[in-house]
Design a protein that fits this description.
This protein is α+β, with helices and mostly antiparallel strands. Helices cover 35% and strands 19% of the residues. It has one domain: Aspartate Aminotransferase, domain 1, CATH 3.90.1150.30.
Length: 159
Amino acid sequence: MLTLRAVLAPDELLDQIRTRYSGLVQTTTWGERVFFYNPGGALSHGVYFLSLKERDSANDVSSRLDEQGAYRVNVSLAPLRYHAMFGAPPDRASHHGPSAAALVATDVLAPHPVYAWLGWAAIVNPTAATLERLWPILDESYALAQQKHASRLREGGRR
């Protein structure tokens, strides 16, 4: 069991994300703090990079954030990284998320409880030590967001 002191505070984690990665725009949507990659506002919405969820919602209660007083970081993984870590993403139609027991475990990167089918992963209450091990994965995710952004700009800013 992790002590509360070992867990990074949500604002501390977001400050480290903002410091490490340029071109991010932060907003709040669906009760989550969300980072989009969108330097200079070149696209109308940017590319979803990472979000921080601090409470349960109607369609996403399996992490039991309200019950644990926890938060969850969600990140889009590059397809090869997702496959290497978790195997093939589940089909959208058949995906109901990992079991609640599996997600209650804190400080462990796991398939996202709702959006694993899109190649997203999640971690509840990461510690500073775990974040150090996650930086290379987050770096890849950031590079993926940059690539998607560049592709959308080439397509004329659609999507």
